């Protein structure tokens, strides 16, 4: 991994590349420095690569294999008849505005019976992967608690809601961005910020496409083998009272490659009430500087489904009016 990172830093201007953070260093004498780097990444980028995250390489290799097999066996043929393919073929030179060149399925604990069944090893591998990722997500949330000066478990508890332990939602989106005959006419995934809490993305080793908006330009999230890319969602922006920011990101389509992307999101329960942590609001002139409203996450999602690809600020206004 050290050699890979060396070449990575040689190839790219570090100041314009999303941070690469070593999770294992939280266990050693570099803990304080690593915590500070993670805090900076959450404040400045809302996105970072995590290396040495503790998920076994063998499991990651199996996830890649079953995802690719799954697309070939169970999705490729369908995509040829998809709505977006038809639109691209039937609309001349017109740029397509309201669609994405993307194939998706969503895995949750509640729809296991609907998970792909024809691809050998898919269910078993994804059950194991999701178990490991969820544990990792909870460890990262505790790091965020610590960096924000919140009691250990604060964010998880907020996400669980009043119904108690383990009610936070954990979903996994398995996406493919197949070769596109005309990437200028349709994007892989339109720009958006992530609605939920913490997003753990296992992206393609080789095929580029993901970009993050930073200081007025799109920055590539370079493929870096077996890292997990972390994205801060809107709910952590709210709980942190704006100290951490969810970042705009998008996926470009490409002509010659099929990009694989597995995004898992650790979100609040739909019934959970989300608000800025009182510890992160300062009292000024007898008023609290609360930068975000208090709302029920399910209400936020109702707004998000309508406005996902719009600026996020009006979403906060809309949900506070519910
Ligand atoms: Fe996203």
Automatic annotation (TrEMBL):
Record InterPro entries: DIOX_N, IPNS-like_FE2OG_OXY, IPNS-like_sf, Oxoglu/Fe-dep_dioxygenase_dom, Plant_2OG-oxidoreductases
Pathway it works in: Alkene biosynthesis; ethylene biosynthesis via S-adenosyl-L-methionine; ethylene from S-adenosyl-L-methionine: step 2/2
Annotated signal sequence range: 1-17
Enzyme Commission number: 1.14.17.4
Catalytic reaction list: 1-aminocyclopropane-1-carboxylate + L-ascorbate + O2 = ethene + L-dehydroascorbate + hydrogen cyanide + CO2 + 2 H2O
Keyword Iron: yes
Pfam families: 2OG-FeII_Oxy (PF03171), DIOX_N (PF14226)
SUPFAM superfamilies according to UniProt: Clavaminate synthase-like
Record-stated family: Belongs to the iron/ascorbate-dependent oxidoreductase family.
Name recorded for this polypeptide: aminocyclopropanecarboxylate oxidase
């Amino acid at each position: 991994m050290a050699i890979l990172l060396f070449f990575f830093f040689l190839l790219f201007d570090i100041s314009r590349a999303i941070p690469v953070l070593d999770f294992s260093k939280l266990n050693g004498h570099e803990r304080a420095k690593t915590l500070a780097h993670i805090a900076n990444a959450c404040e400045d980028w809302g996105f970072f690569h995590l290396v040495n995250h503790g998920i076994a390489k063998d499991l990651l290799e199996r996830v890649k294999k079953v995802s690719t097999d799954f697309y070939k066996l169970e999705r490729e043929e369908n995509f040829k008849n998809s709505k977006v393919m038809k639109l691209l073929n039937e609309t001349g030179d017109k740029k397509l505005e309201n669609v994405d060149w993307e194939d998706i399925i969503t895995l949750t604990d509640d729809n296991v019976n609907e998970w792909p069944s024809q691809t050998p090893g898919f269910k078993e591998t994804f059950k194991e992967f999701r178990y490991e990722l969820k544990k990792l997500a909870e460890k990262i949330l505790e790091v965020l608690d610590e960096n924000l000066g919140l009691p250990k478990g604060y964010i998880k508890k907020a996400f669980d809601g009043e119904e108690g332990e383990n009610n936070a939602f954990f979903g996994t989106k398995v996406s493919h961005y197949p070769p596109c005959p005309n990437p200028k006419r349709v994007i892989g995934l339109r720009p958006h910020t992530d609605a939920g809490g913490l997003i753990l993305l296992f992206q393609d080793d080789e095929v580029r496409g993901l970009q993050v908006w930073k200081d007025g330009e799109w920055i590539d999230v370079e493929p870096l083998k077996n890292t997990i890319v972390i994205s801060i969602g809107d709910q952590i922006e709210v709980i942190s009272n704006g100290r951490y920011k969810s970042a705009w990101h998008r996926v470009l389509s490409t002509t010659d490659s099929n990009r694989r992307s597995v995004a898992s999101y650790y979100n609040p329960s739909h019934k959970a009430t989300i608000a800025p942590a009182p510890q992160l609001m300062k009292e000024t002139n007898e008023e609290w500087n609360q930068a975000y409203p208090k709302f029920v996450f399910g209400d936020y999602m109702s707004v998000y489904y309508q406005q996902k690809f719009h600026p996020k600020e009006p979403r906060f206004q809309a949900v506070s009016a519910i």
